[in-house]
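Morning!

This is the sequence you dropped in the shared folder:
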Amino acid sequence: MTSPQPFDPPGIFASIPKSVTIGTTAYAAHIEYADRGKTVDQVLKEAPIAIKLRYYGDRKDRDATPGNKQYKREISGQDLKYTYGEKRRVTLSINIHVKDTEAVPAGIVIDAYCELLKTWVLRDLPAIIEVVDDTWISDLTYLENKTERRQMDIILRYDNTYQKTVGSIETVDDPEITIS
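The structure's back. Tokens below.
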């Protein structure tokens, strides 16, 4: 079993690509949680790409959690230290919004960013958290007027653990055994 890997939203957030380059032009992405901050329209007035994130569906991963919920047992001096926990799954939903610019159509910018995002999921994200699966990239352009929109859901697995120490293993009495 691998060592416990905690849920790290700030680490995930910080690692998401901040821009995409097409030719010699870099297009900055404004990234924020979907339920906080500015609306997509407000963001697109300031930045060419608006990224909205949200986590949902946090649940126990029964297939990946040890039956006794014990991750490891180790001796620390005179004590036994147990690590207990469970594997959890959560879905990271990333929505990408882009409007046409004078230089480049929104479709080109959003496709380039989606390719960059797929590389991020494959190469960078596993260093922060276990990636169980990623879904196809949905085209949701029809939902908004003149704004290209894509959505990608990524299923992540993390460990929810705690430690328990049982003191003084040398004071455990041997059971008396009588053979008759």
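Headline: Residues 51 and 81 are 43 Å apart (CA to CA).

More detail when I'm at my desk.
O.
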